[in-house]
Amino acid sequence: MPANRSFSTGLLIHCYQNTREGFLIFHTVDDCLVFFTYFCIASRRHHIRVISLCLMPDHVHFIVTADTEQDLSAFVRDYTSWFVKDYNHTWHHSGPFFNTPFGSAVKRGDKAARTNIIYVGNNPVERRLSTSAEEYRWNFLSYYNNPSPYSAHLVIRKASFRMRSLIYEIKSMHSKGRAVSYAYLRNAMSRLDSVEKNQLADYIIRTYSVIDYDYAIRFFDTRVNMLAAMKYNTGSEYDINETFVGRSDTIYRELSSYIMMKKGIKDIHDILDWDERDKIALANELHTRTGANPIQIAKFLHLKRSRQRLLFQGFTKKSLPQMR
């Protein structure tokens, strides 16, 4: 850990990770599920209590308590390295993906804890990915006392043979401390229909989840109070400098839909292997068709900062917003 990083045993610690070059990391449900399982396995290994977690397209927020600085550092090191190794192997990338060191801030007192829990839960609302904190799948709030908030209720004894086989395998992997890898998930999902895919995603989340909802709720007395607080307040974070590009992250959904429809791409990750010249040509097309912020397009396509000036003919360097 950096020498100047603050740490206090037993107090909430807000941690923040963003990606190198600002690249998007969570393009698909698979990205989120694989990351989530590595994250949860690492938290158990290092005895990290997870109070809140939110996966945004290009960054991650989580609130935890830890016994020691070393435990927290080892936790982040392990899930980051495990996930990036799997991601790079699957999508033919190389090198680190997250910025280091990760950001963190200790929250002293109940008021600071409450405002931070609200801030993390509301991150997708601020970026217009949802109209309420609970609506967003990847802050996991909707999984409290609801095993299948985004799918039809799963009755295992009535499920198809293929579904029951996958459930048995996932239970076994979880009990052995193994995450759900990209290779496994791609194979599993290919055997299911659309209804079953959503059921399996919810099943994986509830099986692996380590989020201690009750610990967060106690700062508000009840869950109803917590959700009401998120509805009427945005929360705050003064200790970690979080900057954004563009007004909304919904544009990433639009870019993905356009590419898959117009280019016949089945998996959005396939474009990340394209030659840079082809990416730049696509970037120009996306800007023309969607009006998206140029730097958001660059982040989406994994174009490096050094290539910004080549993105759009007719844009001056001065007119381009700075990538974080």
List keywords for this structure.
45% helix; Alpha-Beta Plaits; alpha+beta; 4 strands; single chain; globular; disordered C terminus; 324 residues
Quickly describe the structure.
45% of the residues lie in helices and 8% in strands. By secondary structure, the chain is an alpha+beta fold. It starts with 11 loop residues before the first strand and ends in a 23-residue tail after the last helix.
Walkthrough of the structure:
The chain has 324 residues and is of the alpha+beta class. The chain folds into 3 domains: 12-147 and 208-232, Alpha-Beta Plaits (2-Layer Sandwich); 156-206, no CATH class; 251-314, no CATH class. Helices cover 45% and strands 8% of the residues. It contains 11 helices and 4 strands; from the N terminus they run βαββαβααααααααα. A 4-stranded antiparallel sheet has the order 2-3-1-4, with helices on both faces. A hairpin with a 2-residue loop joins strand 2 (49-56) and strand 3 (59-65). The protein is globular. It starts with 11 loop residues before the first strand and ends in a 23-residue tail after the last helix.
Secondary structure layout plus pairing:
Layout: E1 12-18, H1 29-45, E2 49-56, E3 59-65, H2 69-91, E4 103-107, H3 110-126, H4 161-175, H5 182-189, H6 194-208, H7 213-217, H8 223-232, H9 251-262, H10 276-290, H11 294-301
Antiparallel strand pairs: 1-3, 1-4, 2-3
